[in-house]
Give the backbone structure.
Amino acid sequence: MTHGSAHAHEAGAGAHRTSMGLDSRKMAFWAFIGSECLLFGSLISTYLVYKGRSLTGPFPHEILNIPFTSFSTFDLLMSSLAMVLALAAVQRGDMKQGKLWLLVTALLGLVFLAGQFWEFSHFVREGLGLTTNLFGSTFYVLTGTHGAHVTVGVIWLLTLWVQALRGKLGPANAMTVEITGLYWHFVDVVWIVIFTVVYLIQ
Amino acid sequence: MSEQAHATTATYLRIAAILVMITLIEVGVFYVPTFQALLVPILLVLSAVKFTLVVMFYMHLKFDNRFFAFLFGGPLLLGVAVVVSLLFIFYGAVRLRTGT
Amino acid sequence: MKTWLTTTDHKRIGLLYFWTAFGFFLIGGLEALIIRAQLARPDGGLGVSAETFNQLFTMHGTTMVFLALMPLSAAFFNFMIPLQIGARDVAFPRLNAFSYWVFLLGGLFLNASFIAGPLFGADRLSVAPDAGWFGYENLTSRQFSPGPNVDFWLLGLQILGIASLAAGFNFIVTILNMRAPGMRMLRLPPFTWMTLITQFLVITAFPVITVALVLLMFDRFFGTHFFVPQGGGDPILWQHLFWMFGHPEVYILILPAMGIVSEVLPTFSKKPLFGYTVVVYSGVVIAFLGWSVWSHHMFSSGLGPIADSVFAGTTMLIAIPTGVKIFNWIGTLWGGQIRFTTSLLFAVGFIAMFIIGGLSGVSHASAPSDLQQTDTYYVVAHIHYVLFGGTILGLFAGMYYWWPKMTGRLLSESLGKVHFWLTMIGMNLAFFPMHFSGLLGMPRRIYTYSSELGVTGFNQASTIGAFLIGLATLVFVWNLLRTRWQPISAPHNPWGGATLEWAIPSPPPVYNFTVIPTVESRMPLWQTERHAPMRPLPERPPAPIHVPGGSWWPLITATGLPVMAIGALSHVIPVVLAGAAVVIVGIYRWAYEPFEM
């Protein structure tokens, strides 16, 4: 997934000679996000097809914690805000703000991950393991895949932040930050869907 | 980078406020018994609005080249179609098996 | 040697794809010959055990689909697409190298299962995948397949999926964004168009199989019950997910061959492709409809009358754009100055055989008749008419057409004609009788049959046909090798083709074009009503052209993936982590390596 940032040099020439006038890395990344729609679409299908088909408990309404997850949702929405502010700062060359907001985005991502860790371990204590029932399996695989995406995003953001600290990230790399942002916001919108489909519609 | 000229920090903050408000409404609707019958459609619409806001403003699709919207929207619609048709097929097959 | 390991040149990667995929094609063909030899006699045949037979047909199908046909198409994508659109390379040269190495290592990993038995305390030839190329549940559950066989299959496919996805993004961007000036979308050569459509199918279909394989992996490694009825799971969900990938995959296999045929026919008829725009749009329609028909593979699973009718209807609809293409190809030949080269023969053979395969396909589309055909040799006949009669004949047409461009050497036309006729006789003798043996009730995937079934004669004909195909392939191999021993140099444009790849030397220089051409018509090298042929490009580049150096990181990053798979296979977590570390380090070094286009 960090491939996005990988082509910084490769497609550098792309900017001035592409037939659509669009950045090649950005185009590849949008195609990648399109592809990810089918990945999450398949996982969400699996979750929904197996909804209500668990043979034993715990069942979703017994265990899902709406107030806590609402906070996680809020946290991820705020991280998206921080991300657009980071991009805007880098684009106008304000690296001080850029560094700050990149770090804030990554930290909010970490808060989300910590929340997910707490939620998972809490569920396991309540008796819902990966193999307990179909709800457990579909829930952990769907939210776990999302969590893995968040983890990759946090590592990616921290990489950019370190680059910025070392003075190697400037307005010239705005496209790299923009692509990171696309990834981050996509992970956010996937969570918007999961929050509704898994947590609120029980 | 000119494509982002349309969105300002103020816009971003306004969008964030709307997103938080919708989330609060979603959670509120969840807890109010009156809405139970309409819960599913209300929640689906609200989350679709949130989804659209993030994609349009934070991912800049509203201002960016329309080809990106195609690259994202095509597979997205396909993904939604997959979810919906699988649900139809599975719930249809279950009805068939149980004879209801 | 080092320059090949680190290469990012699309032409070298294309040749690597070609030879690797052709090697796997020979292995898959060998598996088919053992299968056919076993079935030449009823009641136990040659004595191949049921267990071995299961591995042979599973690996035959998996190899042909994922390790031979897809990557042979990829060989042409790699070599030809940048040339056809007038570019110096693909959009992401290192990602391209990465795709190749992942494909190679994934293929080796899958085939290693044939000899890996002793590592698992079993015999040789006992741990290869054995649950069929579509890996139906419950055959693949830990309960019914406790050994590593299915693990090899699911991990191998997962690795190969990464290669296909990476190539998918790369070629979409290459075709859309790297075109020469004036190369508008509706001036793209039809092969490039079909490639573009194929890549959209790849990036949408492969995530679905990825998820299906992840769920299967959780079932087998961590004890979940996604597909296990005892835990409430539904094996039918596997079938849905598999075929949601599997049916677009069928078009991933056939569309590139359709593209090749659409290049070959105009060249050897000296006529523009009849209804170019319609050919392009019907390709788009086929891809779109290809996503809406998956359940026709599952009529016998009891979907109910509504789903059956919907999927029967959408399936029959696909016959329309496909028929449109067939009429366009015939229209291209009509009234043309036809030169019966080997390439043209294969292209015409493609049309004829694909019609037969298409018609038996329409007969499966009808749910009631499909119920008679499911899991019989009739379906085997169908898939071989479309995938051998279609894809492989199309690929052979492409090999004869582009071999001079790829190597600078001409293939022998007389050997080519022997190859063609042996192939045609062999394939019809092998696959046509399968329609009958299937309708008479011979099930597919069974290691033997009873002489009382009355299908012995049909099976013997199929076996003779299969060995004729084997012989034909040997003739082709000899033809290929002969170009090394007795080279006949090819000129720039040996066939009088109209597209940009024929404007440059054979084989092309590393920078492809001395000057990036400006395109003014759909057939730049031909005289058309409104356009004169493009002026020849200068022999030497007017200014030095910077060619990117190689990179080790695609290969190194790719190496991490099979290491992870080996760790998962043997349940040794540190090995998985070591593989993951290689991937992560590889990605970082790749990202921060100076690499100029």
User: Anything to note?
Assistant: Chain C touches chain A through 52 residues (CB under 8 Å). Chain C has a mean pLDDT of 95. The radius of gyration of chain C is 24 Å. Chain C is about 65% helix and 0% strand.
